[in-house]
Amino acid sequence: MTNTNQTWNNSPISRALDQTGELEFFRAQLPQGGLAVANHRLYLDSGQFHTKDKTTNGPLGVYPEHWLVWLQLDAPLAWSNYQVYSHPKPSYIPLQIAGVSFSRGESDTKFLVFGGQPNASFWLYNTESTDWRSQGLGVSNMSGGAATVDPNQGVGYYLGGQVDGKEMNELLSCDLSNWGVQKTTLPSNFGTHAFLEYMPVGEKGILVLFGGQSSTSTLSDMSQIYIYDIAGRSWGSQYAQGMNGTPISRYSGCSVMKMAPDNTSYNIYIQGGLSNNDQSMLDDIWVLSIPSFTWINIATAVGTPRQFGQTCYSFGRHMFSTGGDSGAFATPLFYIFDLVRLSWTNSYDPQSEPYTIPEEIYTIIGGSSSGKATKKEPSGGWSSKQLGNIFTTTTRTSSSPNSPTSSTN
User: Apex CA 155: angle with CA 101 and CA 179, to 5°?
Assistant: First the structure.
């Protein structure tokens, strides 16, 4: 089934649920994590849809999403005319909100869906046969964790979050070849709804964690960056600074990581989220450039939507921001951000020029659009010699990782 309208007014999902014709609009609220890329498609899975009554113009209901929705990424698309493909999931697949999806990348033909509420379970989806297979690795009511993927080793990571309302101090490592799961106990609770990215640094890579919210609703300082060395199974932390300050503390936003063409810098773009106790929605974009650990505010990102709970994924020079909640019914299925021009755009072309470092970044970390960063360590020095040594080794990698980060609702 397809839909060529940029809204969800006449989508297959809305038509299936709106048997009376009384619903004006469906807003796709797909909490972070319900996103995977496989078979050159962007799949959206898990979440819920909000509806509005045509006559009263008021909220009508919330429906758990039980459809698999995707966009084709091997062809150009634009807001003015794009196709949404979808089909219902089998009735034996549990309804899940705030689940996580993992795949090795665009050429993979399978992806793993797990976690979420109220029925957390592990399911493997084959995009070619359209078959679902239970993996029997469920963790009850698991949500709120941060997720990322190492596409080269084929491992998905899920960190923190909560199980049955209690914070989880575990790191789950999901093997995306044999679909097994390993658990590692964390030295402390890192809270929920944080940002997490994999970087090919060190012997086997590192996980970079920041932001989020504790069980007491305290927000983490965005200048405090936690590093997990996968090979050494050890944790460290590093202080990050910014020429114009650091981002306001936040949770439930999204991020993507892009490497310089020569691997001399790794740049994490973050978008939106919620801040402070008043839960204000944010509309800013920041970049954390590593190894200098420098925060850079992207002041040119005019038109950034106020959102939280969205998931981001990068393809070449573009970032797709999908789902989430903006507090309005007129929420598009996705937004597209050009990571080089640092502006929102209404189109995507897989043949676009590749990612290069924006001038707004390389004027601060040194070098040029092709890389050659000259700022190779934090301004205040490394917090430990061990951490500094990790950044002297680049993990063998076949391509720049494109992976979603999630802090599920």
Answer: 70
Distance CA 195, CA 211 (A): 6
Beta strands at 195-199 and 181-185: parallel, antiparallel or unpaired: unpaired
Query: Residues 314-355: pLDDT tens digits?
Result: 999 999 988 777 665 545 678 899 999 999 998 999 999 999
Parallel, antiparallel, or unpaired for β 100-102 and 110-114? antiparallel
Tokens (6 digits) for 33: 């994590």
Taking alpha carbons only, the member of 309, 331, 352, 336 closest to residue 6 is 331
What's the Cα-to-Cα distance from 265 to each of 145, 279, 339, 391, rounded to whole Å? 26, 33, 15, 10
SS3 131: coil
Element spanning 361, H or E: helix 359-365
Query: pLDDT tens-digit profile of 212-236?
Result: 988 777 899 999 999 999 999 999 9
The edge-to-edge listing of strands for the beta sheet with 41-44 is 35-38, 41-44, 67-72, 85-88
CA-CA-CA-CA dihedral for 397, 400, 402, 406, to nearest 10: 70
pLDDT at 348 (0 to 100): 93
Q: pTM here?
A: 0.88
Alpha-carbon torsion 324, 330, 333, 335, what sign?
negative
Instruction: Give the residue from 114, 48, 88, 2 showing the smallest Cα distance to 323.
Output: 48
How far apart are alpha carbons 270 and 344 in whole angstroms? Answer: 14
Task: Determine the 3-state secondary structure of 327 from DSSP.
Answer: coil
- Looking only at the bridges linking them, the beta strands covering 206-210 and 195-199 are antiparallel
Do the Cβ atoms of 115 and 162 come closer than 8 Å? no
Phi/psi for 312 (5° steps) reads -115, 150
Q: Which amino acid is at 111?
A: F
* AA letter at 132: W
Query: H/E element holding 360?
Result: helix 359-365
Contact between 235 and 160 (Cβ < 8 Å)? no
The conformation of residue 95, written as its DSSP 8-state character, comes to P
DSSP state of 201: B
Tokens (6 digits) for 176: 């995306």
Structure token digits, residue 69: 């929705």
